[in-house]
Amino acid sequence: MEVYLDNNATTMVDPIVFEEMKPFFCETYGNPNSLHRFGAGTHPKMMEALDYLYTGINADDEDDIIITSNATESINTVIKGVWVDEILNGNKNHIVTSEVEHPAVTAACRFLEAQGVSVTYLPVNENGVIEANTVKENIKDDTALVSIMWANNETGKLFPIEEIGKICKEANVLFHSDATQAIGKVLVDVQKANLDFMSFSAHKFHGPKGVGGTYIKKGVKLTPLLHGGEQMGGKRAGTVDVASMVGMGYAMHLATNEMALAYEDNHVRKLRDRLENAILELPETLVIGGTENRTPNTTLISIRGVEGESMLWDLNQKGIGASTGSACASEDLEANPVMNAFGSDSELAHTGVRFSLSRFNTQEQIDYAIEVIVNAVKRLRNLSSSYAYAPKSHESGL
Ligand SMILES: Cc1ncc(COP(=O)(O)O)c(CN[C@@H](CS)C(=O)O)c1O
């Protein structure tokens, strides 16, 4: 049996989405900027896709959503655009973000630090969350941007975006959230969150890889990252990948409607809890960041005495796909920086395994995964020279 439990890395394109995309390869294949019928034929479905995107994040009709290649491009567009507008051409020189952001945020911020910008990386608290008050305490007169993720990709922890949005509005500071791991898992409302910018990627909610979006609130200036043609009103040059844009719009429609979010919060959450609770019955295991206030599909579990990479190899041999943390850091055998930030000791930082489920997982798959995981832990702990578990009288030895 094959069981895919790495949906925070990427998801399967929903077959229904794939059907929506097909016509734009060999039938309606014109360039949307061409004036003839071959180009104009793409417009109805592109407009429908935009409608789905606006509805999915509750954007106002006058706001902008520009189509990018992925969340990384969207994030760089915001951070570097604000740098140009508010720092190079303004009187600001400070950005507030967090220690547990995705590298797309932290690396872009480190690039700006190399250009002389001051960046504050906020720590998470003992519950693995960035506190709104901590953001407030770190906003200065020259703060150009606050950028805090909506949901952490490794732990699933949800951050107080609406509270932070109120703080930024009162302080008149631009606010961006990387919502890549929130869309399709929890309700994302850009207006309630008082966001000026938001980034997302279609392949996290059963859309195609290679397409994402940047939300820009009406009236907020943002210098483009890419210059060239007049696509997206000059806000993002380059011919739009029509099929992917249509796919992202439809995936947003399927993933963010009321029934879909209820399914995530019930069915997917129940499967995640079933898997997590079975692993927590093993001695010396714990959920990094704690179990409260998380996306319904994610668990990052430390299993003392079991190297994350060794566990992944065992799982892969049995048809199960998971990760030790974000896929983009999977080749890096250094201790997981996010786990370090969440306060786990150095050994724990090497023993984390991330399981991230989706609406396509079944209870049968989860029960199989539990059996494989428990057997893998037994095998790997028995092999471990450094792990010696002395069971208390009421615990079975492993
Ligand atoms: C919160 C967050 N923000 C940005 C990105 C980047 O998405 P792209 O579509 O690759 O550009 C990701 C992708 N995180 C994957 C791959 S590193 C993970 O395994 O966690 C993310 O989780």
Can you give me a brief rundown of this structure?
The chain has 398 residues and is an alpha/beta fold.
Mean pLDDT: 93
Structural class: alpha/beta
Characterize the largest beta sheet: strand count, sense, and whether it forms a barrel: 7 strands, mixed
Strand order of the largest sheet: 2-8-7-6-5-3-4
Coarse morphology: globular
Weakly predicted, low-confidence segments: 392-398
- Tally of extended strands? 12
Question: What small molecules does this complex bind?
Answer: the ligand Cc1ncc(COP(=O)(O)O)c(CN[C@@H](CS)C(=O)O)c1O
Along the chain, the helix and strand elements come as EHHHHEHEHEHEHEEEHHEEHEHEH
Radius of gyration: 22 Å
Strand content: 5-15%
Q: Kindly state the percentage of residues in helix.
A: 25-40%
Catalytic activity: (sulfur carrier)-H + L-cysteine = (sulfur carrier)-SH + L-alanine
Protein name: Cysteine desulfurase, NifS family
Domain Aminotransferase class V: 3-368
Keywords: Iron, Iron-sulfur, Metal-binding, Pyridoxal phosphate, Transferase
